[in-house]
Records
---
Amino acid sequence: MSVPEQLSGVTVKLKANVYFDGKVVSHTLLFPDGKKKTVGLIYPGSFHFNTDAAERMDILAGSCRIQQDGETAWSTFSAGTHFTVAAKSGFQIVVESGQAEYLCSFE
């Protein structure tokens, strides 16, 4: 699945999702078929997220390193790549510099 340049036919929640003192900010996108995505920015730092649903994180710009809960290995992802996280799990994400822009799809 490639990520399009733009998404059409969505409802955007104007209230931002702000985490970690503003170092992670996203907006929720709602689709007519009931699917939900978020699009946002992650500023430099190290952050842990828990998941309710399975997630696919497409990196749109910048880069990050992630470590899935229960694993010791770290993986690096840059623009044009993605990673998935299982439901009822979590991951640590690190952005070293700049910002990582992402699109998160909930499965």
---
Amino acid sequence: MAKAATDSPVAKEALAYCTSCKMDLAHTVVAMKGDRVAKVQCKTCKKEHAYKAPKGITEPTAEKPKAARKSKKAAAAEAAGNPIELEWEKLMNTHKANPFKSYNTKGNFTLGDKINHPTFGEGIVGRLIYPNKIEVIFRSELKVLIHGGAPTL
């Protein structure tokens, strides 16, 4: 029976999430509940608190965490699909007769021009930003790009 007491993890070091320091740090085990660590003391700030597993590590007996609640805006956006992608599809259909232009920084682009960008793929000019920038709507994101600017008169 004395051997079981010496095998106890109490007073031994354990990695845990410190609720004060807000980091995974070395702690000293202070109390056990059955075979599980119940309380620990942070070796950095010396505060004693309930054991919390280090971030990214879950205890084998712990239940799966409940699904995170989504805000109403996030839930609505997910239900409606990606709003940027919807706008991209709408504009692409509106300007389907226009040919694609290869993008380069020296080229001149106007509102509604369809662009084939080497990195971002197919996009369409959604807004002109004076004097030499354009906002391009790609399938999943908006990008502000440089262009040659307004044509000289």
